[in-house]
# Entry
Amino acid sequence: MTVTVIIPTLNEERSLPHTLAHTVALGFDQIIVADGGSTDRTREVVKECAPAGARVVLVDSPPGRAIQMNRGASESRADVLLFLHADTELPVNARQAVANAFRDNACVGGRFDVQFDHRSLLGSVISTLMNRRSRWSGIATGDQTIFVRRAIFEQLGGYAEIPLMEDIEFTGRLKRTGRVAALHEKVTTSYRRWKTCGPMRTIMLMWTLRALYWLGVSPIRLQRFYASVR
# Structure
């Protein structure tokens, strides 16, 4: 089973060097960085962090996380696509964990549990609730690093190219095609959004946005209320 890691980027020169170096060392078949028009050194970082012989590909894309992930996926011929945020670190056994999940032929995709790089009681509570909610609902967020069989991804038409909630929308469709694995192995993601905006404010914002989304409010309208600090 071959696995391609797809990393959407936009001005990620600070986070990407560590994420890319760590991911290269995990032995995936290919890493595709889909850049949405960075104006910092993101593109140079990709070239500098790719050691000789590593299958690291940089592709250009219009901006927008869903658009970029679809663009990266279109460049892959691997059996499995794994979508990784530029500020998120995979566990060292990530590839084996994904392979183990797909030993079940009914499994169409999955996600990891998440923890924050900033260790605190509140951060632990937030990540625990995120993981439990996801395990109960079958819905995953991009922070949890979604992976999927490429054939299923193509069957579903990829991510809906909307400005917000593309992960919620995609995993909602994904779980209707088969079993979605909720792995206990943890990815480590940045706490910067929570720290910058304040944990309670961020929680209320995300709950409000998701409630409005489930009530049918367009992601295009919701984007006006969402200030991204990624």
